[in-house]
Structure to design on (486 residues):
């Protein structure tokens, strides 16, 4: 709701001593205030504190238009939308203006006529900062009329104007974003001739609408995003436009697993109604390492990238798999296990673009191998060097173990106790405390066994799935652990 004490006419605006300034100066001044106040500049943006954020600050302090260049899932759009926080809470405009006319210096014919007719009695409206951000996804069918504007015969007929009258203009997105921020996502997808139409606004600060002998000196911050792969896959940013963009800022995926885990925890939907979700920390690490390994796998197209959405949706899928089990068993606690990762394979396969070799292997096989390798790395990081010979010897001497994904945690723990030293080992290395509930102990034991599979110390087989397909969702599958090579 607008503040009712705000000036409502141009004369009240002048009496209050309220002045206006270019939007880039407005952003710069608010940014300086936030820096001095040691405020968090981009809340929720994790992993960019020493790389992207300082470059963003430099661009804004320099009053530059800028482009964020990076692969999918690197928070580019989120960063642009947070720029709104550097605008004033509200700004005054001439009432009824389609282009946010400055009451003291209008640019449209409507605004100029209003001041001529009413002078200082011209009415003033107030626009919130969230209304001053305009975002457009670039697509090949975007036209100059969409971006800049065009003649509107209906407006001419209703107003009794000739088509040459400026009042017949239907303004496009750029003029309507005047005195605010205009963002274009996926800039290379914009047709070349439309990119040419952006030259003037970036260089001179004005646009020319076809068929009209007028120039609109717009007051804008222009920001863009692009994926480097798009330069050759679908289009490119034409060189003269690229030259006019003040700063090019490269985004990136998390550099550390811990940073990725923090992002995933922040973004994933983990709070489930009426159920207590407990996510083992080592399982969160396995989820994140799946993405890290995929970004290094030669079978995965690294030019397209592996989005941070992969671990986010994977963690959500893992929790949902555990949730199903808990609901069927009537358990209050939801504790995801390593086996739930395999139930969430669709969250991985749909997020990877594969090279030719990867297509030959198939996305599901690659996803399974990524999960197994991630378990091995997580175990090595958390419990590497631990003596597992008793566990391996159990299988080498003919022992076997079947673990049903639908089994209750207490039943699983009893099964794991049949493997000498397994329960004691997960407690000794600190994966879980001795007092941990059965759900956490089950997850830890599965991690150890999956890690031994990754190291080829034991073998893992899937069984029961054919029967499960015939029996429907209540069919019982199992994971079998056996001596390697059996």
């Amino acid at each position: 709701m607008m503040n009712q004490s705000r000036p409502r006419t141009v004369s009240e605006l002048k009496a209050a001593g309220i002045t206006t300034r270019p939007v880039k100066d407005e952003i710069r001044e608010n940014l300086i205030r936030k820096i001095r106040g040691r405020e968090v500049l981009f809340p929720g943006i994790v992993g960019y504190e020493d790389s992207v954020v300082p470059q963003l600050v430099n661009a804004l302090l320099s009053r530059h238009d800028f482009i964020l260049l990076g692969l999918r899932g690197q928070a580019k759009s989120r960063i642009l939308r947070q720029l709104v926080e550097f605008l004033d809470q509200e700004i005054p405009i001439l009432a009824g203006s389609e282009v946010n006319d400055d009451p003291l210096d209008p640019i449209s014919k409507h605004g100029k006529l209003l001041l001529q007719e009413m002078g200082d009695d011209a009415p003033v409206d107030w626009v919130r900062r969230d209304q001053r951000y305009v975002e457009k996804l670039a697509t090949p069918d975007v036209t100059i009329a969409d971006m800049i504007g065009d003649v509107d015969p209906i407006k001419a007929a209703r107003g009794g104007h000739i088509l040459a009258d400026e009042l017949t203009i239907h303004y496009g997105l750029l003029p309507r974003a005047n005195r605010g921020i205009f963002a274009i996502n996926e800039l290379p997808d914009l047709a070349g001739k439309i990119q040419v139409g952006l030259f003037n606004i970036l260089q001179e600060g004005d646009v020319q609408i076809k068929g009209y002998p007028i120039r609109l000196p717009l007051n804008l911050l222009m920001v863009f995003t692009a994926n480097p792969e798009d330069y050759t896959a679908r289009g490119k940013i034409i060189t003269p436009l690229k030259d006019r963009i003040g700063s090019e800022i490269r985004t990136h995926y998390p550099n550390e697993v811990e940073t990725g885990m923090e992002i995933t925890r922040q973004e994933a939907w983990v709070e489930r109604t009426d159920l207590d979700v407990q996510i083992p920390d080592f399982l969160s690490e396995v989820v994140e390492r799946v993405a890290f390994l995929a970004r290094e796998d030669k079978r995965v197209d690294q030019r397209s990238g592996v989005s941070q959405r992969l671990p986010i949706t994977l963690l959500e899928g893992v929790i949902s798999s555990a949730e199903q089990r808990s609901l069927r068993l009537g358990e209050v606690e939801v504790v995801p296990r390593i086996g739930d990762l395999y139930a969430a394979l669709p969250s991985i396969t749909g997020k990877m673009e594969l090279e030719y070799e990867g297509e030959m292997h198939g996305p599901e096989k690659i996803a399974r191998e990524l999960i197994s390798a991630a378990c091995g790395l997580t175990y090595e990081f958390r419990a590497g060097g631990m003596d597992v010979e008793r566990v391996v010897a159990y299988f080498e001497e003919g022992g076997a173990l079947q673990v049903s994904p639908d089994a209750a945690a207490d039943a699983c723990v009893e099964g794991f106790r049949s493997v000498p030293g397994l329960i004691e080992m997960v407690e000794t290395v600190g994966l879980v405390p001795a007092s941990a509930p059965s759900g956490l102990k089950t997850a830890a034991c599965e991690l150890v066994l999956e890690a031994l599979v990754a190291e080829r110390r034991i073998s893992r087989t899937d069984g029961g799935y054919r029967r499960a397909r015939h029996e429907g969702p209540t069919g019982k599958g199992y994971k079998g652990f056996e001596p390697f090579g059996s």
Notes: The first strand starts at residue 66 and ends at 69. The chain has a mean pLDDT of 86.
